[in-house]
Design goal:
Helices cover 70% and strands 2% of the residues. By secondary structure, the protein is mainly α. A 3-stranded antiparallel sheet has the order 2-1-3, with no helix packed on it.
Length: 402
């Protein structure tokens, strides 16, 4: 559907270019019309190029338009649209040919040349020729054309991301934000924070703890709501056995994004156990469950209540959750308690069968899901492997999730 629309946009661009060129010469044409002379007919080669394009003969269309259609400010958009169409169809070599033809054309001014170069950079990016694309976008990042400059920096960040040059990617976004792009500031800030986090993970692997802290501070400055920063900082504090600081970091997560609450529970349990203060964790989880209901929270809370209070209190918690906001995971935990409670003489085969069926069902369900493209996974990815978006994969909600 998109290719169909692009075809017709290209057709109308070509037609508009022709008629503007034909009727913009006001005096000669009007004099001809006044005295009865007919304007010259449309160039048959021009029509042949359109025919090739609409019949999906891309090679012939490229030949016709690059050889016969003049390049000027009225036809530039037609050439650019042709190249973009070819790139979208995967015919990157032909798109490069069209845009290279424009870049080498002497009649275009600097701004027009830069538009053609931007499209050529996109061709190379689509083809995976990252070094050539990077070279073009680096030249265009300082363009006087604000739109070209912004786009070039964005594409540079994308290239650096794919090459795992995280600091270069973060710096490209910083340069982009200084140019005050219209809208999407938070998207760029979030991306920049993740780039700093990626570099922090690399520094952590090398054992450079001071650099880890410095990079995470930059990430927090870029995006104060970045959950990943809080989790990484908590991990740093846990390694230092500074459990109070770790708890402080983890408790920031619900305010930043409550969808990531399940990720803080192991760290909280480790910290409170090390401090010998499970009672305080129980109080906190009760409050957390009231503010942000979650299957993971209620299951963790039930386990702690069972260990430190009573099994009856734990079962009551689960029963209340099932009544108000049922989920398969909570039902499974509820059955676990009943199966453990049942005596060996009792006939609990039916309950065991139901529990096994639930376990089998949950094993075949992905726990995480990308909110942008629907990609499913069984562990957390900070960058979606499918659509490349950052911070879009979260725990599944509903009956089969949280």
């Amino acid at each position: 559907m998109q290719d169909f629309l692009l075809y017709w946009m290209l057709f109308f661009a070509i037609a508009a270019g022709f008629f503007m060129g034909r009727y913009s010469r006001k005096s000669p044409l009007r004099i001809m019309e006044r005295y009865g002379d007919k304007p010259s007919p449309i160039n048959p080669d021009y029509i042949r190029g359109l025919n090739h394009l609409l019949n999906e003969d891309a090679d012939a269309a490229v030949d016709t338009f690059t050889e016969l259609l003049p390049v000027n400010d009225k036809t530039l958009d037609t050439h650019l649209a042709l190249g973009a169409l070819l790139r979208r169809r995967g015919e990157v070599g032909k798109a490069i040919r069209v845009h290279q033809f424009l870049v080498e054309h002497q009649q275009l001014d600097r701004q027009q040349q830069e538009k053609a170069q931007l499209e050529l950079g996109l061709d190379y990016l689509k083809a995976g020729v990252l070094d050539r694309a990077e070279d073009i976008f680096e030249r265009l990042q300082n363009s006087s054309d604000h739109d070209v400059s912004i786009k070039s920096l964005g594409f540079l960040a994308e290239i650096y991301r794919d090459e795992k040059e995280w600091l270069n990617a973060a710096n490209a976004i910083e340069s982009l934000l200084r140019k005050k792009p219209r809208g999407h500031d938070q998207k760029w800030r979030s991306m920049q924070a993740h780039f700093y986090c990626e570099e922090a993970v690399s520094a952590k692997t090398r054992g450079d703890q001071p650099l880890v802290r410095k990079l995470l501070a930059k990430a927090a400055h870029a995006d104060p709501k970045c959950v990943r920063v809080s989790l990484l900082m908590a991990d740093v504090e846990l390694k230092r056995e500074d459990y109070k600081s770790a708890i402080k970091c983890l408790k920031r997560v619900p305010e930043q994004d409550p969808d990531y609450i399940p990720e803080i529970l192991p760290g909280l349990l480790q910290s409170y156990q090390a401090l010998g203060d499970i009672e305080t964790m129980i109080v906190y989880l009760r409050q957390l469950q009231d503010d942000y209901p979650s299957s993971s929270v209620i299951i963790s809370l039930a386990d702690l209540v069972n260990q430190h209070e009573s099994e009856g209190a734990a079962v009551a918690l689960l029963n209340q959750k099932i009544d108000t906001r049922p989920s398969l995971r909570v039902v499974g935990k509820f059955l676990d308690f009943h199966l453990n409670k049942a005596s060996k003489e009792d006939n609990n085969k039916e309950q065991t069968l139901v529990r096994n069926m639930l376990e089998s069902l949950l094993e075949h369900k992905s726990y995480y899901n990308c909110g942008s493209c629907g990609f499913s996974a069984n562990h957390l990815h900070w960058q979606c492997p499918s659509c490349k978006s950052w911070g879009s994969i979260k725990a599944v909600k509903g009956l089969e999730g949280e």
